[in-house]
Design goal:
There is one protein chain. The chain is mainly alpha-helical. It is built from five helices and two strands, in the order αββαααα. The radius of gyration is 25 Å and the shape is elongated. 24% of the residues are buried.
Length: 197
């Protein structure tokens, strides 16, 4: 891995770390709000007939936390990690959000497997019995799914959302603004050689 790719990955990880805090805090706060009655956050919102599964309240809370953290991460990555990336902010955000949404869908699947009691990778309920914050299964499932989807998200964001080869952001700037930003300076004429006699 080239040095600048490594630096970008570290920066992406630091931004992701801050986004992770935003995501987890949002998820925990929403869980506490929605879980006033025991088991409320496990209630089914609607069935997913295609997959013979259910979309539960904790899936919704995870998705809301994702949206807030995704906006946070985009702005930090745009300003710091991938400053040389091309495309307008609107186009980049739509790409960033699309990749983030795909990662979130994968993350929700991982989360479902971790929380389903009959899953082969279910979190052990004797350890994660929801007796304290650190033993709350939903929090750990949210943490694991974020970590699991981060590397692929980094690669896709770098190669597609913030690809530097797509040209500078001011490529879409009107010509008059480009001239103000960097006026064209005509080349100096070369003096003609003088004849010596």
């Amino acid at each position: 891995m080239k040095r600048h790719h490594l630096v970008e990955f570290i920066q992406f990880g630091l931004v992701g770390g801050s986004g992770f805090v935003v995501n987890m805090v949002t998820f925990i706060v929403l869980t506490k709000v929605f879980a006033a009655a025991p088991g409320t956050d496990h209630e089914v919102l609607f069935p997913l007939f295609l997959f013979d599964k259910n979309f539960r309240v904790y899936h919704l809370l995870s998705t809301i936390a994702f949206v807030i953290a995704n906006i946070w991460n985009f702005e930090l990555n745009r300003a710091w990690t991938f400053r040389k990336g091309g495309k307008s902010s609107r186009k980049r955000f739509s790409r960033y959000f699309l990749i983030g949404a795909a990662a979130q869908v994968v993350g929700l699947v991982i989360m479902s497997f971790l929380l389903h009691p009959n899953s082969p990778i279910a979190l052990p309920r004797d350890v994660f019995d929801d007796s304290t914050g650190l033993r709350t299964a939903k929090y750990w499932a949210q943490l694991i799914q974020i970590i699991a989807t981060m590397p692929v998200s980094f690669v896709l964001q770098k190669l597609w959302t913030f690809a530097a080869h797509e040209g500078p952001e001011d490529a879409a700037m009107p010509r008059s603004e480009q001239e103000l930003a960097a006026p064209d300076v005509p080349p100096r004429p070369t003096p003609e050689p003088t004849a010596r006699g």
